Amino acid sequence: MNGRSEDSSLTAIVDAEDRAYVESLSPGPERDTVVASLLRYRNPEALEAGDPLPAVTVRGADDLERIEILELVRGRPLLLVFGSFT
């Protein structure tokens, strides 16, 4: 990836702390990997804290029954945690 398009792409999607970290890295494989990860996983259209909840159907962990998240929360705050519990 050339430096100029990399800089303009990063400026559009990452915060100042991420930009500073990328700029602190020497050109090479490590920097390329960090930049590729940021460009792939940072989405300026992603939900932010406080955004309205979209209509999403999930499966319950206990019986795999389909659940509408909007029904589940009924106006209460929702915190989603992703990770491995094994």
Q: Which structural class best describes the helix and strand composition?
A: mainly alpha
Shape: elongated
- Based on CA atoms alone, the radius of gyration comes out at 18 Å
Multimer state? single chain
Instruction: Count every beta strand, where a strand is a DSSP E run of 2 or more residues.
Output: 2
Strand order of the largest sheet: 1-2
Strand content: 5-15%
Secondary structure layout:
Elements: H1 3-13, H2 16-24, H3 29-41, E1 57-59, E2 66-68, H4 69-73
Antiparallel strand pairs: 1-2
Q: What features would you describe in this structure?
A:
The chain has 86 residues and is mainly alpha-helical. It has a domain of 39 residues. It is 44% helix and 7% strand. The chain has a two-stranded antiparallel ribbon with strand order 1-2. A hairpin with a 6-residue loop joins strand 1 and strand 2.
Key phrases:
86 residues; mainly alpha; two-stranded antiparallel sheet; 4 helices
Short description:
The protein has 86 residues and is mainly α.
